[in-house]
Amino acid sequence: MKEFYDLCETRYICKRCCTPINVESHTFYWFSGPDDWRFWCPTCEDLPRARALGTPAEHLPAELQLPKGFICRRVPFADPGEVKQANLLYRPYTKRSFLRQYCDWLRLDGAEVCPLKSSVTVSARFDAATQQYSNELTYELSDSCSNAPCQFLRSRSLRPLQRDEIQCLMIKELCDINGSHGLCQTGDEAMILQQFLTVTGAEHFPMPVPQPSILKGKRRPDFICFVPLSKFQYEMVVVLVDRPGKDPVMLESENREYQQAGFLVKRIEIRLDSMSDFKVDRELATWIENLARRGMRGETNQ
Q1: What residue ranges do the domains of the chain occupy?
Q2: In Å, how far are 8, 28, 79, 83, 300 from 18, measured between CA atoms?
Q3: Quick check: 214 and 64 in contact, CB under 8 A?
């Protein structure tokens, strides 16, 4: 999903015909009114009644309050000397941004953490059409732990991993519902998160942040994700884990509360077969990727 995190566009949609209107920009481009020439709609052949997709990145929560006093910020703190590298390593609420902060939190508590090493390689972009290198730059990220690819960030398992196959200390700590640093509330949530982390290895991928406090006076959702539509826009998604048999009236009421606060709601139901968690996580990861792609066509509200 790296291409969406790095996409320097602001995405609008014509409210009359739903034609996407993408404006190249270096920050979020605010529609200035009916005289703004950038908003000509080729389908209506008129200036559109435009609305922006998602939420501007600058309006995402600056931090999330999680259980046990852990505060997750959009991106981790960066020392002045590491700003250039940090600008490529970290994006709002990605797996890497979360892991860096989670490791720092454990260190402050005197707990053992994994020896994660992340690095950036910058190179000239090779244009496949012209078969030449261009003046544009591209970059690749690598993440290792104990001389092996980081399981938290890089695993792309094609099958469910058993407990003894989880080598990453951070996954074990995070998903331990009885541990002092576990952030999941139930075993269902822990298994969903564990499998999700091991099927979504990529340079950047949204983190399902567990048990955030987002609605005052309401119970915490199971997870929250921030899915990139472009570098400057995100869909805020609440992920709720359900067992069969819940009251549909209660579910609809809960959905409405989150939707009124600007969140999309994604419900996943735990099934009872042995592949359940793995299938659910593969479906969730695919749904997140498709949500970002649908933003290119103005379809995220469908």
Answers
A1: 2-53, 59-82+90-113+156-297
A2: 21, 20, 43, 39, 11
A3: yes
